[in-house]
Amino acid sequence: MNALLIQGSNIAVVVFVVSSTLGVGLSLTVGQILTPLKNARLVALSLAANFVLAPLAAFALWRMLGLDEPFGIGLLLCGLAAGAPFLIKLAEFAKADLGFAVGLMVLLMVVTVGYVPVTLPLFLQGTAVNPLKIASSLIVLMLIPLGVGLALRSRGPVVAGRLRPAVGWVSNVSMVLVVVLTIAAHFRSVLSVFGTFAILAAVLYTVVCFGIGWLLRGSGKGTRGVLALGTAQRNAAAAFVVAGQNFDDPRVIVMITVVLIVEFLMLLPSARLLAKGR
């Protein structure tokens, strides 16, 4: 039974990753992605927040709180992986700059594919990870579906419009299944989270990343909110892929799931507060 749950969880992760990135491609045009990225200063700040400060914050919390290594690795993977598709929905809730949210999300997602394989071995010296395997998995599961979606949106917008709601539904359902099946398959590992600082680490990490994005500011109130939300909402889909390919301890996956749940619980109301503030 447990083997079936683990297999179901792995399948749900793949469906979640592919449907999320495919849905992004079906929703956008290349122009919509590129236009908000013409502000070089804002792009530089976004990259620094997500690929320098966010990973360092994850690594620092791992060490400061004395997390068990699997929990620390899970937190670090979240720190390295940016560009969550859910950022667009958060930006809508926050009534922030949706154009910038679109461009930022795709930029971070694409950079993540090349960044994680190169950087992860630097943080985990002595731990066996396969950079080529990480890169190939992310390309197959994220960049190719994104490219397919963009091509369909460009050449057949009517077809893309019909597919988009179904793909979005699959993405939402598979995300729920990832959480449920991961908890069910690794119930003992989930219980091991309690009594540790793992949940506290996820909460603090979300707060710190939101603060990083907020303090780095942007060119306006709308972009400031997007940068804060975009830095705090990590790319769990990419983190799941890397964890599944390189780590056997189920607590790595469990920690990513904990971070995913905490982010949703914290960032949805935060987006609502940003909307009221505007």
TrEMBL record:
Its main location: membrane. InterPro entries: BilAc:Na_symport/Acr3 (IPR002657), Bilac:Na_transpt (IPR004710), Na+/solute_symporter_sf (IPR038770). It is a multi-pass membrane protein. Keywords: Membrane, Transmembrane, Transmembrane helix. It is found in: Membrane. It comes from the Bacteria. The chain crosses the membrane at residues 12-30, 42-65, 71-88, 100-122, 134-154, 166-187, 193-215, 227-247, 253-275. This is Transporter. It comes from Mycolicibacterium mageritense.
